[in-house]
Amino acid sequence: MSKTDLSLQRIDGPATVTKDEDRLWFVVPPLHGAFRSVAAIDEFIKGAGLGWSKLVGHDIKIRVTSHPYPTEKWARALDANTPNPLPGWGEFLKAEQRKVMRLTLADKVVYVGVDLLAPARKRATEIREISDAMAGYGLGARPVTSSELEWLLHRSVALGAPAPLTLPPPMEEWDTGDVASFTDRVQWVPPEPYGRTTRITADVNDRLYVQHVCVVTLGRIGNIAVPEQMGPWMQRLDRLPWPTEVSMTLRPLPMDEVVKRMRGTRDRAEAQLDHYENDHKQTAPKELRRKIKRALHIQDRVQEGDQLERWGDWWVRVAVFARVDLEPGCSDDDRRRAEAEAEETAVERAAAVTTMFAPQFTFERGADQYRSAREFIPGEPLANEAHRRFSRLTTFAGAIPQMTSMVGDRIGPHLGETCGESQRAVCWDTHRAMEIGEGAGTTVIGGKPGAGKSVLVGKITHQATRRGIRCVLLDPVDRLGGLARIEAIAPYSESVNLMHAQPGALNPYWLLSEPLETHHPDNYTDVVEMTRAERSILAYDTILGLLPAKLAADKATERALEAAVGKVPGLRTSSPLDVVEALEHSEGSLAEHGADVASRLRRIAVMPQGRLIFPRSRDWAAERPGDVEKILRIYTMRGNTLPPASMKPEGWNMSQRLGVAALALASYLTMQHVVSRDPHERKLIGIDEVHAIAGFPAGMSLLTQLTREFTRHWNVRILLSDQVIDWITGIEEFIDCSFIGTTTSEQGIKDAMRIQGIEPGAGFEKVYPLLSSRARGASEQLGYREWVFNDGEGGIEKIRVRWSPEEAAVLNTTATGRVASPPPPSVPADEIDELEELVSA
Amino acid sequence: MRLTNDDDTSTVDNKFLGPAGYTLPWEARFVSYAIWAGLFVLAIWFERMAGFRGFFPSVFAIIAAVGGTMWIGSFITFEVPMRTLAAVFWHEVTAPRQRPVEPPATFTPATVKIDAPRLRDRARQVARWIVTPAYVED
Q: Do A621 and A504 contact (CB within 8 A), yes or no?
């Protein structure tokens, strides 16, 4: 490409200057599009259409390109965001990079260039008007910086070559000589007249790249409904596994121009009609009357004056490319063969674009490939006027080129990939919401059995542990205990079955540790008093929750229990057995009732789970189970009986009440691991079967305390996992992100959409049952699970999470039919029935 | 939101069926007649340059112009009007092509004519003046 050919003469800040025009450039920010309501998309299209209508008379160039995000950059950011990793972090990071390299982290970037019509001395008003129009709703664009414009030039001149990763420092003003520096190392050659591709040779980062570029132009389009029938039509390109470049030219037409054109159409059509019917007594084609009618309609709409009723001419071109793979020192024959293959690949990719958009859109690979490809360079004119589209500006706005898949961040570990319109790597940092967003950090993970909740919790916890984040998991049914066996983290992990812990391990008095004076220097005494009061309240709620529903609801029970708890000091060394003794010594009208309640509690206290809550003697162990310095601690409760998620608390039997109480108290135990650490230290708590805690009398206040205070003030990421998520009422405002897997029940879908902020009735209900769907008659396990992930920062996408072999080995809870060893014994069923009768008597 | 397109309304396919009251046996667009006229003039001009005159060359020119018009007309569509087709043709013809590699400079001394006798005499004269030592010093 010789210097004399390029139209661009100068870059002046956000403007490009050529011999014939000056053009002001803007950048449109990316917009996440998945799960947006129909009304939201409609408003967006109208907003964009309105923005374009304010630029009537201008020639507008739109370039859609992608800004690669190097995997290495992501790895460095993750490493910098991981101050205290466990040994083996380097190898783990390398393995993660290899996975991410197979996906894309590239960002879609949309540039808009608007030509300036006013003379140079009178441009201030015009620039202001253009900037206001571009900043409106639906476009939201801002003026481009010179480095961004430089990027666009590099990308456009070396079309199809890898993006230059190192650019010279940006200059405010570029001259012809500087511009030529872009082109000196790039050659554009159309092979022959009416060739199928243009051959581009580019020297980028001291390496020679040769690619064949093929440009297709948008042809006829049908009448479509966005988003009811299809998403924003330009977003379809994101589905392609290789990058593309897009160049669009828009010319919003003034009202008189449209009226003149329609009048011309009417006149010609009427003349033809007359020629057929009057001159030759023949039936005229029906299209003539249709055109007259339509032209009259357009003329009428335009003359109404509504700013949304504006029409324009536009062209859309898509460039695809294929690189020539050459081995160093290869022969001429090999070179020719590689060139032919690349040309063929480029043409096939062009055909793929055509197929992808059919039948609503047609794309044509026409002639004039060289000029069509040059059109992608800022400052170059429209190649030719073939395939001109004429429509309302809202039809053009329906492309929404800036819409993309955006979820997660760029500083967290690799979690999965998007599986909606495109496949982009999804990375998520568990502590970004608290440390940078200064908000709450509660994650809800929901889905029916088999949705993969345990595996997802396990994967997030595994990654967090590798990063040195202290993690505590409460896993009632022991699905996650295997995490502690992963080789790299085994020395720093332990799994404890609370059902086999020492008596008193779940003593409600003992669970709330003494506050540290260093954490409360100003009001230590008050905090100590409050803690003692909390212990008493927790003991009261625990004991009340253990009683049958009817007995617990009795006012006499409440009074007797309140009086008994009041007699027991709220010290850590107190025990619920002290409360039982106080009940046995109830006075006055409560004496008989108190003794009755006390005798029931004595029977509960001798049960296996009961011993955890009611220590048998004063000499119960003061040691916390598994009280050693481990990064990952998993509390399982295998053998604990929990009620089904759908059962109301009134229907729970005694063992289920004990199970729930044990689970709720175990949640308090996990909290202790948080409050005993430095508030700034990163921590993670994961709790499964949350519905059981929510049904416990103190459960909701525990959840509220966890989500409201602990996440922000103690830098804790909380993962709450369950099949049913109706317990979120009351803590919704503290939930910042969510993963919802396969859900089929109507109520479950409603709760999921509510928590994820998706508008009901927009057709998204059908997404949830189809997550992680497998082919009928499949003979293998799926190997991944799909989720609707709302990252709490406006991004919501369907993602796919796979597990590594080491994670699969310990976390895959799907039954295989092969029994390795018998499960540990729980309380025999006949023993439970016998005790149930005793307690209910 | 329903998004419509109005491509149809920006052009009308104008056809000339013949003078009023007399319908030609073919339907052709106005632009086809213009192309035919241009091609016919071109064909006649080529024939004149080649020295062909008379009735049959003219008939041939008419037929060739009709054939050429039909061929060019097949490329003219609603999407690619005549003006654009001409512009595309010009762009394709004037697009930069890769120059063939120039051959390296070659010399063929054998083609140089030498006036042999004068050279022989001069050579003898020069030879008398040159003293060749018996050995070569380093």
A: yes
